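Quick illustration, no need to memorize.
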Amino acid sequence: QVQLVQSGGGLVQPGGALTISCAASGLTFDNFAVGWFRQAPGKERVFVGAISGRGNSKNYADSVKGRFTISRDNDKNTAYLQMNNLNPEDTAVYHCAAGRVGSVYPRTYDYWGQGTQVTVSS
């Protein structure tokens, strides 16, 4: 049984930082790219970024480039999303996903984490 279990999230002030995690089990983790997506209330789910299975390639949405960093520790079967200089527009439910290709399209991913709320507010 494949599981992606997310941890972290919560309330952070504008300009602050937060890191959320995605721990995988039941799959050969380094065979899968990990993508991060977010969905704000009333809006579509959008791509945040992705990292290849070996961590040698990364891709970020323009909205987070330079502020967010995706990483992974394959020995721990865990991927991370480090978020710096957060602003209220970053408020959303964040999901990690595992797929063969780290694309910008949610439908290309095979497995999804449960999601975690990130709220940026003073």
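The radius of gyration is 13 Å.
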